[in-house]
Specification:
Blueprint (H helix, E strand, L loop, with lengths): L4 H21 L15 H22 L2 H20 L4 H13 L9 H4 L7 H7 L2 H9 L4 H10 L22 H16 L10 H11 L6 H12 L12 E3 L6 E3 L2 H17 L1
Antiparallel strand pairs: 1-2
Helix pairs in contact: 1-2, 1-7, 2-4, 3-4, 3-9, 3-11, 4-8, 4-9, 7-8, 9-10, 10-12, 11-12
Length: 274
């Protein structure tokens, strides 16, 4: 099977047209090309709203329902972690957009591979692993902000120890915001119903994150994520509470407080030791 280059180009044109139309509608066209925090707060809010409307419209047309819902969950989780890490308002905007668009490159992957029941062969995995680069290609040329987003999209499958793809970036060579995406994307994939496997319980997914911290994930990000998920502050606004119904599998899960305490201790130990 081959990559669908035509779909990539058509999606790119569709996204850029939608963004241009939406920004013009909300009077934000000039702000698309800002590269820093110089945009006024109210203009930033208009810009984010306008761009998210355009992006969600694009996802609705070009991506399947499961990919769309996954993107929206990743947005909520990424924003929560970004807030925990005290990101600037500009970085939070870029992170939200990157979370929405991180899998946009999958439009180039044949549906038969994306929805295959069972394990992928080596050729299929090779194609799947190209989607970060395809996403980067789609976002190029759409203004400075989306080029910042593109740098996160292409890096969201990089690994802390340099074993990730497509460029094998190592530790802090991976953009900080992309490291956030990697953790929340992996977590949501683990607790979600997938064509290739059943969802993990929430605590099991968190244990997997801790075990892979300092190898696959930035330990600082893992700790921040767990602090958001199980911290003292209520996380109901992000879809999670200490004793709650798993929002994906719609089944009750009991998060034992002692297990959570040990999990957070382990994450802190890995972070300090890294």
């Amino acid at each position: 099977m081959l990559m669908n280059g035509t779909a990539t180009l058509r999606c790119k044109d569709f996204l850029q047209y939608n963004i241009g139309h939406s920004l013009e509608r909300y009077g934000c066209t000039s702000t698309l090309y800002h590269k820093d925090d110089s945009i006024a707060t109210e203009n930033l809010a208009y810009l984010l709203y306008a761009m998210e409307m355009a992006v969600m419209d694009t996802l609705a047309v070009w991506c399947d329902f499961a990919t769309n819902m996954h993107a929206q969950r990743v947005v909520r989780l990424a924003e929560a972690v970004g807030t925990e890490l005290q990101l600037s308002r500009h970085d939070l905007m870029v992170l939200r957009l990157a979370a929405l668009l991180h899998d946009i490159g999958k439009v180039a992957i044949p549906p038969a591979i994306l929805h295959k029941q069972g394990p992928l062969d080596s050729q299929e995995w090779t194609l799947i692993r190209l989607h970060p680069e395809m996403g980067w290609n789609i976002l190029q040329g759409a203004g400075a902000i989306l080029e910042q987003v593109a740098s996160l999209v292409i890096a969201h499958h990089e690994a802390w120890n340099g074993s990730g793809y497509p460029r094998g970036l190592y530790k802090t060579d991976i953009p900080f915001l992309a490291r956030i995406l990697t953790v929340v994307d992996s977590y949501d994939a683990m607790v979600s119903d997938r064509v290739y496997g059943k969802p993990l319980p929430i605590l099991s997914a968190c244990q997997e994150l801790v075990q892979c911290a300092s190898h696959q994930y930035d330990p600082q990000i893992v700790l921040a994520f767990l602090s958001v998920l199980f911290g003292k502050k209520t996380t109901q606004q992000h879809g999670y509470t200490m004793f709650r119904r798993n929002p994906v599998i719609n089944a009750p899960e009991l998060a034992d407080e002692e297990c959570v305490r040990l999990l957070l201790q382990s994450a802190e130990y890995v972070r300090v030791s890294a």
